[in-house]
Amino acid sequence: MPESPEVQALAEFLSDNATRRRVEAVDIAEFRAQKTRDRPLATLVGARIDRVRRFGKHVDIATDAGHLVVTFGRAGWARWNGDAAADDAPVIARIDLDGAVLEFTDGGDWLSLGLHVVDDPFEIPAIASLGPDPLDPEFDAAAFAAASFGRRKQLKALLQEQESIAGIGNAYSDEILHVARLSPTAHATALDDVERARLLAAVTGVMRDAACARRGIPLSQQKTAKVAAMRVHGRTGLTCPVCGGAVVDLPGSKAGAQYCPACQTDGTPL
């Protein structure tokens, strides 16, 4: 799943390369991806792209005829001018621009890509309800404290809850908790001041470092770059780069999440 560092890289790329171009034609291969049925993608034909920005894990392509908001879900992504060097996922939607082609793909077992055409991106509940964003320069201790950490909820789940903190998914939540040396099953309400400070530093550090690292990488190589940068996520059975212990799966995650017992749970497997 692309998370905010990859989506930020995509938004910056499109801002540099798609802004001021006009939509010449659109083609939808899978109509289930079109979430605003009364306002299909075809209504943007002839529109000029004015601005591209990111909201959490969503991209907003603002035109003079409305906003195209793309939700990538589990396996959605984008291609520019047919570049599929590292991604053979099927094309769900194609947008022909003057001088370029933008395609949206989905390589999952079930369709997760969503396309919305709206007057305002905040009409979409998933955007209107987003919590503070660690990539926002104004995200600080106050924003962090306001992120619903007073509830009794496991850290792994809370970090992925978009209403609490925007842009973090499965992979980066594993990385954040590893850097913070905290158990994924610890409850937010049980953290002391030192642990809370470590978690805040890890949230901002991991997400901002990842965003910087993804900047400028071709869209077709974003997933490969993300995987290569992981410390524990997706590294079951491999050596922890910090302590040399073995990385293991988080129970109940069906091998979808990982942690290091030595670094995060005092050496005791969950």
TrEMBL record:
Keywords: DNA damage, DNA repair, DNA-binding, Glycosidase, Hydrolase, Lyase, Metal-binding, Multifunctional enzyme, Zinc, Zinc-finger. InterPro entries: FPG_cat, FPG_N, H2TH_FPG, Ribosomal_uS13-like_H2TH, Znf_DNA_glyclase/AP_lyase. Pfam families: Fapy_DNA_glyco, H2TH. Coiled coil: none annotated. Residues 2-111 form the Formamidopyrimidine-DNA glycosylase catalytic domain. Residues 231-265 form the FPG-type domain. Transmembrane segments: none annotated. It catalyses: Hydrolysis of DNA containing ring-opened 7-methylguanine residues, releasing 2,6-diamino-4-hydroxy-5-(N-methyl)formamidopyrimidine. Signal peptide: none annotated. Belongs to the FPG family. PANTHER family: FORMAMIDOPYRIMIDINE-DNA GLYCOSYLASE. This is Fpg/Nei family DNA glycosylase. It comes from Microbacterium awajiense.
